[in-house]
Specification:
Layout lengths: L1 E8 L1 H8 L12 E3 L2 E3 L2 H12 L12 E9 H7 L7 E4 L2 H4 L20 H22 L2 H10 L5 E9 H11 L5 H11 L15
Antiparallel strand pairs: 1-4, 2-3, 4-6, 5-6
Helix pairs in contact: 5-6
């Protein structure tokens, strides 16, 4: 599982808008320093109060946007699709690209160290899938491509360019930090904890 090309946008706009309800812009102490937006102490105190107040009060988090390329197995994407609200994604297409390249074990999520018999399993599976791929390319008979799609395991890696906001990231951290699927508890959490402005991605002990 990989996270690439992460970018975070509009932190300054979100912090500015956070003060709109009480017209308290004059109390804002955040600023740009050497090309980096630094959240001031007074703004951070207010931000933490709003975050602790619940989703109806921390609307400003929905205005901090994140873009990232995620390469993950299909079984993980099926769980990620739970978070449809506040996210958008463009994915690579198995329909258009699956038959273009030889099918090899590195196209799948595989554990290291592997369990007994794992290497033999993947080699045999990829050989069978590759036969179907070649048959389809030779004959253009869609039945072979359909069989290839049907036999493709959910460990197949797919890349998607995902956009979401800090409210979504915070919600995922709350729900998935201790998830038994390590793609959540290890990989996604590690990426989320690498994002800037971690103070905005931390809930108080009792929300």
């Amino acid at each position: 599982m990989k996270f690439e090309n992460t970018a975070v946008y509009n932190v300054d706009g979100a912090i500015r808008g956070m003060r709109n309800p009480l017209s308290s812009w004059h109390r804002s102490d955040s600023e740009w320093r050497d090309g980096v937006f630094v959240i001031g102490e007074a703004d951070l105190i207010l931000a933490k109060k709003l975050i602790a107040g619940g989703t109806e009060h921390r609307k400003f988090l929905r205005q901090i946007f994140v873009s990232v390329d995620i390469t993950a197995p299909i079984y993980w994407w099926s769980e990620f699709d739970t978070y449809k609200v506040g996210t958008a994604a463009n994915s690579t297409s198995t329909m258009h690209t699956l038959a273009k390249w030889p099918i090899t074990p590195d196209m799948f999520e595989r554990d290291d160290p592997a369990i007994e018999g794992d290497e033999e399993y993947w080699q045999n599976l990829c050989a069978e899938l590759e036969k179907l791929r070649q048959k389809y390319n030779e004959t253009e008979d869609y039945a072979y491509f359909r069989a290839l799609k049907q036999r493709l395991p959910t460990a197949f890696l797919q890349k998607r360019t995902v956009s979401m906001n800090y409210e979504v990231v915070l919600n995922i951290l709350r729900q998935r930090t201790n998830h038994r699927l390590r793609e959540w508890s290890r990989d996604f959490v590690a990426w989320a904890r690498s994002l800037p402005y971690q103070e905005l991605l931390t809930l108080p002990e009792k929300e």
